[in-house]
Amino acid sequence: MTICVPDEVGKQELKDLPGVEVVVWGDDGPPPATVDGVQFLVPPYVLSAMTPELLAGLPELRVIQLLSAGVEPWLDRVPDGVVLCNGRGIHGASTAELAVAGLLSVLRELPRYHVEQVAHRWTPGRTDGLDRKRVLVLGAGDIGRRVAAAVEVFDAAATLVARRPRDGVAPMSALGELLPVHDVVVVALPHTPETHGLVDAAFLAALPDGAVVVNVARGQLLDTDALLAELVAGRLRAFLDVTEPEPLPPDHPLWGAPNVLITPHVGGGTSGWERRAYHLVREQVIRFRDGEPLENVVSAGY
To answer: What tens digit of pLDDT does each residue of 51-60 get?
Structure first.
């Protein structure tokens, strides 16, 4: 079987698999001569220039394995009969790590202390913390569960909410009663038509004064103008690794809003992510080669 990866790193990681030929095809050149025989395709992490027409012209293609957890840019590109798999598990730990780091930075006012450091001022004081905080985590997948486990180490209480309720996971329909009694909301849901704009003005208004909103999902889940109004009013605080629009324009008022910390969508941007990515790819290729069920199969848009 022939598989296609976006870089030489992937080729080196997979070249020893018996019965597998590995070819490289990134976005910086034309498809390789052997692309017509590709059955298993791993596109580049960043949104690829591989168009629906180009993909439809690959007669042997059976699987597209993404290196990202998000799939929305690919849903209208996948040819009929081709299985789409996402990269769930590759970036879960690092994204959860950033969510907790950002939350702690806001609670412990680290940006303010950095300003004091630059000014060479020693100004001790008392800050907020996670002790006895009630943390509502939207999303009970890899990221959400890691966030919940992490905050509980610091004596916070975590509540998981997801689109598919199960033991220990509340349904989305319970948000109305949960929001007023939680001090932190961490958004770790995929972007779908059902979650688009979920964190709107009414959602934010239901939170108690001083609550912290953390978004490590997609910017489109949160109403930027509604959050901006709450920040300017001094009622809510936020940590955002994703924004809408994205990239955030230099003149956007969110940059200068009080009580918000912004990072430029770097949840998965840690050293070693390629190793984790190709570990997943390797396992998926073996499953496909051996006729076993694939993991992370995207169904109904997620």
So the answer is: 888 889 899 9
Q: Which DSSP string do the residues of 192-253 spell out, in sequence order? A: -TTTTT-B-HHHHHTSPTT-EEEE-S-GGGB-HHHHHHHHHTTS-EEEESS-SSSSPPTT-G
CA angle 283, 47, 223 (to 5 degrees): 110
Buried/exposed code over 173-186 (b: 16+ C-beta within 10 A; e: otherwise): eebeebbeebbbbb
Q: What are phi and psi of 215, to 5 degrees?
A: -120, 110
Q: Of 232, 225, 180, nearest to 207 (Cα)?
A: 180
143: Cβ contacts below 8 Å, ≥ 6 apart? 69, 91, 92, 95, 96, 99, 188, 216
Query: Cα dist. 187→92, 94, 121, 214 in Å?
Result: 13, 15, 35, 6
Dihedral angle of Cα 35, 39, 42, 46, to the nearest 10 degrees: 60
Q: Using one digit for the tens of pLDDT, what is the confidence trace for 63-76?
A: 999 998 888 889 88
Q: Is the pLDDT of residue 161 over 90?
A: yes
Contact 267, 94 (CB under 8 A): yes
Q: What single-letter amino acid sits at 53? A: E
Mean pLDDT of 32-41: 89
Q: pTM to 2 decimals?
A: 0.89
